[in-house]
Amino acid sequence: MVYQKVLNVCFFIHLFRVFADKENAHLTTPQILNKYGYPIEIHHVTTSDGYILTLHRILPAKNTIRKPVLVLHGLFVESSSFVSTGVKNGLGFLLADEGYDVWLGNVRGTPSSRNHTTLHPNRDPKFWDFSWHEMGTIDLPAMVDYVLNVTYQASLHYVGYSQGTTIFFVMMATHPTYNAKIKVHMAMAPVAYLGHMKSVPFGTTWNNILNLWFKVFKINEVPPNNLFFVLRRVCSFSFKLCNLVSMSIFGYKTNQEDSNTLTYFLTHFVVPVSRKQGHHYMQIIKSGYFRRYDFGRRKNEEMYGSSNPPSYNLSLVTTKCHLFYSRDDLLVSEVDAARVCKELGGACASSNLVNGTIKHPDWLIGNRIGELVYSKLLNIMADY
């Protein structure tokens, strides 16, 4: 069940390459920004454990007081997901047009942050020994401190999408002093609990087999290339069969009229993640708890002093959070979003159920996402 759901994420996020501006699909973040004439700076941050992270900075288009905003991507994508749809729909562009000093983050392991002071991603398995816990406890605090240092500001705005919200919650639960450094958290498709995901399950047996397969063959970087190679072959044979297989495996069926749509997006590979990173999400799906990585009873006792990993305490979050979610998002359900808001307590400043058909990738590439979400997001941010 849980591996199917993670593959579902992979499929959803990959769709942004389909519906986004096809001319931008192969371009990096700096190339896209240069294409549209937006001033860009590339910054590098070295974490305490040696990962070299890249931040893409879009300077404000208007001659206004710079208001720094840090924007963080979801699973299987990186900073380009906020600009690939072009100047009219890309959140990065819209923020810059509003006068914000935009910083697009890239967590460890993404193509833009696939660097380390001593480890090589292709040769050293230890490079991939991380989950989103390390991103929340190490990567995000390092990014926040760097941005504030460069901009000479005491605090900044934060926009998170999917995994970007998870990382924020981890940072605040483990480093509550950072509440003072964040003006507001705009959380699109907030992920802390995933127990009510809507999908077509494979079942526990498949989950165990796939997990064992990853371990036996020492696959630390996922997804494997052969996953999409098979689907590309299917799609080249029959679009209807392609849609059927996609629905069966990922729980998603495209309504795009162009019969080349699925074939088009399957010609690209998703941004890789670590096996441990994906497995951590599977653990919270299965357990129903938002908690640290589960190493197994014996190692948990060594690491945490208990047989089960400790939960992240969302009550430690005091930064005002505005949650945005949709009934049609197969990954982030209303029930799970409501649970996040409840545990945040007074920090949950608003819980916004978005009208309209917004599936998980639509937060980035939906035709009406600017009208349905971004306009309200920008209005709320202006109050902080």
TrEMBL record:
- Give the source's domain of life in one word: Eukaryota
Domain named Partial AB-hydrolase lipase: residues: 30-85
What is a GO molecular function of this protein?
Answer: hydrolase activity, acting on ester bonds
Q: What residues form the catalytic site here?
A: 162 (nucleophile), 329 (charge relay system), 360 (charge relay system)
One Pfam family per UniProt: Abhydro_lipase
Where do the coiled-coil regions begin and end? none
Biological process per Gene Ontology, one example term = lipid catabolic process
- Entry keywords, A to Z: Glycoprotein, Hydrolase, Lipid degradation, Lipid metabolism, Signal
Please tell me whether the keyword Cell membrane is annotated for this protein.
no
Quick check: keyword Signal in the entry? yes
Q: Which family does it belong to?
A: Belongs to the AB hydrolase superfamily. Lipase family.
Q: What's this protein's name?
A: Lipase
